[in-house]
TrEMBL record:
Species per Swiss-Prot/TrEMBL record: Streptococcus henryi
Pfam families the UniProt entry points to: Peptidase_S51 (PF03575)
Name the record gives this protein: Dipeptidase E
InterPro entries: Class_I_gatase-like, Peptidase_S51
Keywords tagged on the record: Hydrolase, Protease, Serine protease
GO biological process, one term: proteolysis
């Protein structure tokens, strides 16, 4: 399997793929001649959001000169055909959105199990990239989540990687939620005994089954501290 776990693979204003850190060229290098794509949603019941998001994804690929032989959307409307759709696809896109909502949908359709024998390409965006991990850090993002005793910050994911990503760092590094700083007061304390990798848009984690490499600006959050790993056009390779 090849996977590209991104903060955001496209510019939603221009409807184009983000070319930073050689992303487009690297995706093209592993794509088959004929692409059968499957768009897996983040909110299984928000049909309008999913349809618009899926269309933007298709337009971005077409603008980069990549057409789809077939293109399907997987949400609640067709969840009973998940196994068939995954088996037919050679490119799977994991949408961005609300991490716990998407995580619950992935579990309901058994996506982790279906991907164990999948040997093609996965592209994740934001929440999709976070949920691709074995252990998902569901950083609170909606009002009330940061102070809720019931909100689960650690979830079981798809198991594609052991790297726990936090996307959109350039946008969220100074944000507050429920009166708390999302990094200094939330993510840093949650990193005690573990590690997260905060990435900016344009950065992605690439895996090919043998190795994993971060491309672009990335930060390590570990045991309550943050340190910069890489800048744009730099790489960091994980040891297996």
């Amino acid at each position: 399997m090849y996977y590209f776990l991104t903060s955001n693979p496209m510019n939603y204003q221009t409807k184009e793929l983000n070319p930073a850190n050689n992303f487009v060229e690297k995706v093209k290098s592993v794509l088959p001649t004929q692409v059968s794509a499957l768009f897996v949603c983040s909110d299984p019941r928000n049909y309008a959001f999913t349809d618009n998001y899926a269309r933007d994804f298709q337009l971005a690929f077409e603008a980069a000169g990549i057409g789809f032989e077939s293109y399907s959307i997987l949400d609640e409307r067709i969840a009973d055909k998940a196994a068939e759709l995954v088996a037919q696809a050679n490119l799977i896109f994991l949408a961005g959105g609300h991490v716990p909502t998407q995580n619950a949908f992935f579990r309901s359709i058994g996506l982790g199990q279906l991907l164990r024998t999948y040997d093609h390409i996965v592209i994740g965006s934001s929440a999709g990239s976070m949920n691709a991990a074995e252990s998902v850090y569901a950083q609170p993002e909606e009002e009330g989540e940061a102070v809720s005793k019931d909100y689960q910050r650690f979830l079981n994911g798809l198991g594609l990687t052991e790297v726990s990503l936090i996307p959109h760092y350039q946008e969220t590094k100074n944000q507050k939620l429920d009166g708390l700083r999302v990094f200094e007061d939330i993510a840093y304390p949650d990193s005690m005994g573990t590690s997260f990798y905060a990435i900016s848009d344009g950065t992605y984690l690439y895996g090919d089954g043998d190795s994993e490499t971060l491309y672009g600006q990335a930060y390590l959050i570990q045991d309550g501290k943050l340190s910069q790993l890489t800048s744009d056009n730099e790489t960091y390779q994980f040891r297996k």
